[in-house]
Amino acid sequence: MSVSYSFTPETVQLVLGANDANLPYLEMLLSADLSLRGTAVSSDKDIPFFIPFMRRLEKAAKERGALKEAEIFMEFQYLSEPSALPDESGREQIAAAGKAIYPKSQAEKRLFSALRSSEVVFAAGPAGTGKTFVSVIWALSEVLSGHKSKLLLTRPVVEAGESLGFLPGDLQQKLNPYLRPLYDAMEYVLTPSQIKRLEENGTLEIAPLAYMRGRSVNNAVMILDEAQNATRSQMRMFLTRLGENSQAIAAGDPSQIDLPYKSDSGLVEAISTLDGIKGISVVRFSHNDTVRSRIVREIVRAYTEKGRKDDNEQAGF
Predict the structure, then answer these.
(1) pLDDT of residue 309
(2) How far apart are CA 300 and CA 306, in angstroms?
(3) What pLDDT, on a 0 to 100 scale, did the predictor assign at position 91?
(4) Which superfamily does 95-312 belong to?
(5) How far apart are CA 210 and CA 107, in angstroms?
(6) Based on the number of CB atoms within 10 Å of its own CB, is 232 exposed (0-12), middle (13-18) or buried (19 or more)?
């Protein structure tokens, strides 16, 4: 039994790409043969979420223009999970500067909820799961809406044979390479000149983790990225900077600890120590939640499985 969806003439090429270049990718994702007649795409299989999937792709194309594989995969990842099947009308969203983002996985959905309800949020999981991106957009939405007056971004500087002191420029310029992923997320909703204005008026602050000692941060959202590389004392120091009407978010990947000993990771210790306390949420991501792209998901899955195999071999299983 087949199923079909008709796009509007304005969106069919935005979804399928020039010369229908996205059609083979859609066939691979859906494990089905697709055909195009006019503006109608048909599947040779009755896929339960086919029509909601096409509807979401059309909506994304109207909002963002021509779709790339990564954007198509995000929509597929969300709807291919049985527990995610529709009600689209009631979907959560985070809006900032006129742009909205939606959860692309069940873990991201839990993160959306945690950000709205908790003063301290830990987001732990592999690369490409949207931990940092969602956290930054949430923080911008809080600042731009006036709910918070400051966004403070920080990240531990784990040196690899080169000290910050040997890098050129002032402190801001030295930190920029470490904080580039955070800027990439901000640039999804703001232009570089808008970000610069936020920095100049003090709404956006970039601070090395070590420089936060002794401060009390009020009416702000604090984001600690790469939190797995914060030491136990650094993590405790970061969390205890939390002042009146502030929120702390720590995002990191416990499988990518660059500290001399994994047991030194403040993220790992904080999650095991603080999970379950009222006002604190822990959102755990896995390779199944990877939304960056299909190939990244497979890479993370392969490394995760190899890590489990190596651990078993070391344990003598």
Answers:
(1) 61
(2) 10
(3) 56
(4) P-loop containing nucleotide triphosphate hydrolases (3.40.50.300)
(5) 30
(6) middle
**Residue 148 pLDDT:** 93
pLDDT score, position 151:
95
Residue range(s) of every CATH 3.30.1370 domain in the chain: 3-86
Angle between helices 106-117 and 131-144 (to 10 degrees): 40
**C-alpha to C-alpha distances, 293 to 66, 288, 290, 317, nearest whole angstrom:** 16, 11, 7, 34
The residue behind tokens 């979420």 is 49
Six-digit token pair at 91? 């979907």
Task: State the pLDDT at residue 312.
Answer: 53
The per-residue pLDDT for range 37-74, each reduced to its tens digit, is 999 999 888 888 889 889 989 988 888 788 887 778 76
Distances (CA, A) of 72 to 28, 37, 68, 130: 12, 21, 6, 15
* Parts of the chain with a pLDDT under 50: 82-90, 160-164, 166, 317
Tell me the pLDDT tens digit for each residue of 191-234.
888 888 888 889 999 888 878 888 899 999 999 999 999 999 99
Indicate the CATH number for domain 3-86.
3.30.1370
Encoding tokens for residue 27? 């066939």
pLDDT at position 81: 53
Which residues in the chain are classed under CATH 3.40.50.300?
95-312
